[in-house]
Automatic annotation (TrEMBL):
Family annotation (Pfam families): CBM_4_9
Claim: Hydrolase is one of the keywords in the record: yes
Location of the CBM-cenC domain: 2-77
Protein name per the record: CBM-cenC domain-containing protein
Keywords, in A-Z order: Hydrolase
UniProt-listed Gene3D superfamilies: Galactose-binding domain-like
Originating species: Linum tenue
GO molecular function: hydrolase activity, hydrolyzing O-glycosyl compounds
PANTHER family: ENDO-1,4-BETA-XYLANASE 1, GLYCOSYL HYDROLASE
UniProt xrefs under InterPro entries: CenC_carb-bd, Galactose-bd-like_sf, GH10
Lineage: superkingdom: Eukaryota
Keyword Hydrolase applies: yes
Any GO BP: carbohydrate metabolic process
Length: 116
């Protein structure tokens, strides 16, 4: 439950590492991270896992109306398939600072390109 942690009109990144327990699945498994915001679902990202390595799952979300309940869910593999989760993070992204950083990075890269 993260209701009291999120603020309106901010963009948040969400990420986690997930792994299917070795030998637990007989085929590819979809795992996703989602938010339950009141009675609506907000998808935070999905990954298909078909091996026993760790996979990063992530995405972003923004809440624009005051919710009464916000819960984080990591769900997916078929019933009876065990999985592990590590490093779940949810953090606000300062969009103005991010765009300035991306602009500086793009300008720096473009200044290295040869002029034709």
């Amino acid at each position: 439950m993260i209701t009291d942690k999120v603020k309106l009109f901010l963009t948040y990144q969400i990420s986690a590492w997930v792994k299917i327990v070795p030998g637990a699945a007989s085929g590819p498994q979809n795992v996703n991270v989602a938010l339950g915001v009141d009675n609506n679902w907000v998808n935070g990202g999905q990954v298909e896992i078909n091996d026993d390595r760790w996979h990063e799952i992530g995405g972003s979300f923004r809440i624009e109306k005051q919710p009464s309940k916000v819960m984080v869910y990591i769900q997916g593999p078929a019933g009876g398939v065990d999985f592990m989760v590590a490093g779940l993070q949810i953090f606000a992204v300062d969009r103005v600072a991010r765009f300035k950083h991306l602009r500086r990075h793009a300008d720096k890269v473009s200044s290295r390109l040869p002029v034709k």
